[in-house]
Amino acid sequence: MAKASVREKARYWFDNTMSRGTGALIGWLAAFCAALIVAAAMLAVWLTPGEIENGVPGALWASLMRTLSPGKIASDQGTAPYLAIMLTASLGGLFFVSLFVGLLSAGLKTKVEDLRKGRSRIIESQHTVILGWSDQVFTIVAELVKAREQKSVIAILADKDKVSMEDDLRDRIPDTGRVRVVCRTGRPTESADLDLMNLGAARSIVVLSPSGEDPDAHVIKTLLALAKRRGDHPPVVAAIAHSGNMAAARLAGGPGVHLVDSDDTAARLIVQSSRQSGMSVVCMDLLNFDDGEIYLRRVPSLTGRTYGQALSAFENATLIGLRRATGVELNPSTETVIAEGDDVIVIAQDDSTIDLAARPAAVDETAIVRAGRTRLEPERTLVLGWNGRAGTIVRYLDGYVAPGSVLDVAAGHPDAGAGLGGLRNLTLNVKECETTDRYALESLSVGLYQHVIVLSDDRFEPHHADTRTLMSLLQLRDMQTVMHERYSIVSEMHDENNRALAEVTEADDIVISDTVIGLLLAQLAENRHLSEVFGYLFDSRGSEIYPRPASDYVTEGRPVTFATVIESARRRGETAIGYRRAARVGEAPHFGVVLNPAKSAELVFEAGDKVIVLAER
């Protein structure tokens, strides 16, 4: 290889210095400008010594003034050589000053853009860190704002412009109270970017599943980056979109990570809502921080009592289960003895309200109804639409229904009904159908079904999929009105903002799957010990939430205390946690649901009202 020439070496050296940024450019500009000033001064001293006052210093000052202020030449007088030298200095100064202003402006602009990106390290402690960006971030931040009574910080790191994130959050959550939200631009999968979040001092970390293709790969890579970092490791909560990736995510995150299976949770909630109208509303009330929250509390004075006796122990809190050394039990047997070291699981407005009642609230024995259990009968269910979690929904539904039940799937999706062999109780039929077309829906004879489930089609982006779901719901409502038919309708949607539009369709339940997952992540970020409780609630094994007719528990039309409702449910092996008013099912935000009412509060139940209980199927 030929040896580099002196010129090439000089040019290479110059190029390297020029690439060091605005500071190096300004340095070179200052050097050239100084050279011009010195050259002009020396020429003036040599060629026109009579025009210079104070010798060399005077010449340098005169040259400096003409270079920095080219307009100074207009007032100059003297010989032609002197004026020519000063004019040259002024022209050179005009050139250098223009370059300097341009470089300074570009450098400041670059610096401002860097500041807008938020690249400084966060100096906070006990802050909640959210890694990633999706629509769930608004739900999580809004819920954490409700949960925090003291000053605190929520820090968000995402591969998105910092100002854009702040503007979006300000539009969706205008009032954050005493909570400060700090955004940083960076990749959650990069260790250097994670270091900006001061994770070692964080209270908890939430990893969001981004939108787009293969979101779980991004989550798993982020979990690997978190596990690899040195220092303290705060609790991590992450959402996994597809159940098949749970094992890989557990391995990547390690034992300190609590994973939420989005597909499985949403599928269970859709199935349970199709069986019991209002189930999703009850779950969302339990998951948000507006009113009743779930707490774990050790109450030594309850040691030795049975679970049935402890149900009436609190006035303003509702007992729902126990956490024991063997795990969580919701609605255990009424004869279960509360042992030393057991935590009670209660729903309460605030942890300060979890106090034992001075005396149990009165129970009206004459108002208690002894209704028998209804026997499960074969039924017909129609599923309109198809998506990636539909197969899980069908398999869970198969575990709920009586043998001989029929499930018809009507969809235009190419994968509809695929891979569903081995169903025990359901007979599955698949029909080609455009679910938004009125004539296609009428040809299904929808009135023959007891339940209709409308699923979001994953072939379309979420907003368009929600629009198609709304169209299907409107068609079904009109068909019910015209044909005087009645069947329960449960629909799945993505955007919480579309719930208000969907209420026009009078669907029995609307499951906003993204919102439910966001609420669940917010709860676990505040208290990771609740993961067992919510895992139990969304599991088909054991007790589940059921809104059941109030007439099955107490006499309608007469005042009764909620303590009477609890006692009636206890005799059926159930735990009453609230009620739902039929006359208020369309009223946001609770849609008629009241959880954890005071035990001594008098209620009058009307036709259509429901009692919300934890019960075995």
UniProtKB/TrEMBL annotation:
Domain of life from the UniProt record: Bacteria
Localization: Endomembrane system
Gene Ontology CC annotation, any one: endomembrane system
UniProt cross-references to Pfam families, sorted A to Z: Castor_Poll_mid
Keywords noted in UniProt: Ion transport, Membrane, Transmembrane, Transmembrane helix, Transport
Membrane topology note: Multi-pass membrane protein
Gene Ontology BP terms: potassium ion transport
Domain RCK C-terminal: 282-363
Single GO MF descriptor: monoatomic cation transmembrane transporter activity
PROSITE patterns in the record: RCK_C
Transmembrane portions of the chain: 21-47, 82-108
InterPro entries: CASTOR/POLLUX/SYM8-like, CASTOR/POLLUX/SYM8_dom, RCK_C
Name listed for the protein in its UniProt record: Potassium transporter TrkA
Source organism per UniProt: Herbidospora solisilvae
